[in-house]
Amino acid sequence: MRVWSLLKTYTIMVYLFMFAPILVVLVLAFNSSQFGGFPIEGFSFRWFAKLYENEAITRALRTSLILGALTAVISTTLGILAALALVRYQFRGKDFITTFLISPVLVPETVLAVGLLIFLRWLHMPRSFGLLLLGHSIIALPFVVLVVQARLTGIRRDYEEAARSLGASAVQTFFQVTFPLMLPAVFAGALFAFTISFDNITATIFWRPSGMETVPTQIFGMLRNSVSPEINALGFVMICITVGVPLVAGALARYFSRKKI
Known about the structure:
By secondary structure, the protein is mainly alpha-helical. It has helices at residues 2-28, 46-53, 55-88, 94-106, 109-122, 129-153, 157-165, 170-181, 183-199, 202-207, 215-225, 229-260. Helix 1 (2-28) packs across helix 12, helix 3 (55-88) runs antiparallel to helix 9 (183-199) and helix 11 runs antiparallel to helix 12 (229-260).
């Protein structure tokens, strides 16, 4: 019993060590103090108002949201097609293609960022939003493929064959049978892609064009100059987005699953 008590205590301390900084940011975001630290002088929304009035931050947030949404669309679309090919068909080089699609997960992000940047400079292509979108899609694609592939493996082909035997075309079978069954995995994959893009900073620093900032790079730049209370408010917004999106996506996935049943 003593061993289990020590194990529980150790587990609680580990979780406190992991989540205490997040709780500190959430609390300090509403601190009215000019210095944004302890002790807390009062409750105020002044830093959120200043955050809204800061054009650089709102522009970075808008860029991150657009970039994350486009990354989710592109990587999810490609991930669905790749998962269908890998699960439903047999062809030469299948194992190599599977390894190739998953390889961005195995390669350190910094190495991948530098490698792609050097390759595109060799092609005389400047850094641009398109390059940033391409890089984020490459990083997020393996997660979408893995999630959708795992779901598609559990879907029996009998459902698709039954639809085809009743006269449905391949496209109709996919959109009316296969896609609804794999919809929870599609939501999960899109969620992974969005959050990976929204939180990414290592690769973004290498790929973003001059003058373009995302929320993580904007926070990094602000921390290099000074520690402003607006950073706590911006961190609160980021935490709400990265936690709220999974909750909404999970609720939608459960809703569609119950509706289909």
